[in-house]
Write a structure and sequence with these properties.
With 390 residues, the protein is of the alpha/beta class. The protein contains 14 helices and 16 strands. It is globular. It binds iron/sulfur cluster.
């Protein structure tokens, strides 16, 4: 029996609106937005970025998950894994009885047509989708439209004989799902993480022979049977939607220039294609934090979001280039006026820093949050800052 798929909600938006507001809304944040994104209390002046927090894709995914629970109170409801990269939201869903297929490697094989599975905002691989379809369960697909747009272009590359070069994190669910779309259409892919990896690929393209260490270096980042000698002859560029815009543009330019050097400018159209797949929400949040750093006299930045959230990590990267920056997972990380737990940019683990908040005098703090961070966490963080600044 083919799966029943819901892609446009379950007609229960109004029924869950109150619950969503109770769980994720912040009256304090609303007040600050209305007050030119600025808040003053004691010696603290706080500047909020003009775009932060839940993006349209996350908003929709969480809304659909709540609607699903409401619509199927007596059935098992599953998520394939984290619905978004925010531990609080995922824990809330667990508390509502939503189960996680990622908790048990054999869970998919036990699904029945009675079960309901929610697909996350960043999508799932073609293989997993086919597996779920074979089980005949009901699917609630929250894959974001901006991710679907990337898939459309990657499929177009595959059908045109172009290898997709994906600027992304090979371990990220979205990039894995995007890569699987290329393979499904008979195409190839290679994932590059940053400029350094791109440089290696570009050097090989210019040389045109001897792929050297590349097959080992990219063993987990290429499609099955990838041949560096033939599969980089025609390439199309795409990005994970949440990467750093400036880096994606630079990587596109590096690739373009390598292909032009190898095949000549005149032949470039037949050899190289590109389109920008950074989503507008990611772009808006990056632009807003750049503007905040430029226009406001902030002493330090706080960036709130899950440590595995790609877009949050990139916001922290932007801030850390010019200000002391603390990427925190939640308000509890502000342990005291002396001590903060945070993850430094580029580090894997959380660390504790003392003396993060100037002990006296006026202090101006800039604040932003990733696309998967609900406003209530932002509000609670501001409440703590207020307490610490008297
Ligand atoms: S970050 Fe962008 S692509 Fe991802 S869910 Fe949000 S709007 Fe969609």
């Amino acid at each position: 029996m083919p799966s029943l798929v819901f892609r446009k909600g379950l007609d229960l938006k109004h029924a869950v609106a109150g619950m969503l507001a109770d769980n994720y809304h912040s009256a304090l944040v609303d007040r600050i937005k209305a007050d030119e994104f600025t808040y003053r209390s004691g010696r603290l002046t706080l500047y909020l970025a003009r775009e932060f927090g839940f993006c349209y894709g996350v908003d929709r995914a969480v809304d659909y998950a709540y609607q699903t629970r409401e619509r199927f109170p007596d059935r098992h409801v599953f998520l394939t894994g984290e619905i978004i990269h925010n531990p609080h939201v995922n824990e809330k869903l667990r508390a509502m009885g939503v189960e996680f297929l990622s908790d048990d490697p054999n869970a998919v094989d036990r699904l029945t047509p009675e079960d309901v599975v929610i697909l996350p905002a960043f999508g799932v691989t073609v293989a997993l989708l086919q597996q779920l379809d074979r089980r005949g369960c009901t699917l609630v697909d929250t894959t974001c439209g901006s991710v679907l747009n990337v898939w459309k272009n990657v499929r177009r590359y595959a059908e045109g004989g172009y290898t997709s070069i994906i600027h992304g994190k090979v371990w990220h669910e979205e990039t894995q799902a995007t890569a699987s779309q290329a393979v499904e259409r008979g195409g190839k892919y290679l994932v590059v993480f940053d400029r350094a990896e791109t440089e290696l690929v570009c050097n090989f393209i210019r040389r045109g022979s001897d792929s050297g260490q590349l097959p080992t270096r990219f063993a987990n980042a290429v499609s099955p049977g990838f041949d560096f000698d033939t599969d980089l002859n025609r390439i199309g560029l795409a990005n994970q939607t949440t990467m750093l815009m400036s880096e994606s543009l630079a990587i596109g330019e590096m690739m373009r220039s390598a292909m032009a050097d190898r095949y000549g400018e005149a032949n470039l159209d037949a050899r190289y294609q590109a389109f920008d797949t950074i989503c507008s929400a990611t772009q808006d949040r990056q632009d807003a934090v750049v503007a905040l750093l430029r226009d406001r006299p902030v002493d330090l930045m706080i960036v709130i979001g899950g440590y595995n959230s790609s877009n949050t990590a990139n916001l922290a990267r932007i801030c850390a280039a010019s200000r002391p920056t603390y990427h925190i997972a939640d308000p509890e990380c502000l342990a005291s006026a002396q001590e903060i737990r945070h993850r430094p940019v580029g580090a894997k683990d959380e660390v504790t820093t003392t003396g993060w908040l100037p002990a006296d005098g006026r202090v101006a703090i800039g604040l932003t949050s990733g696309a998967s961070t609900p406003d209530n966490l932002v509000g609670a963080t501001i409440a703590k800052l207020t307490e610490y600044c008297g």
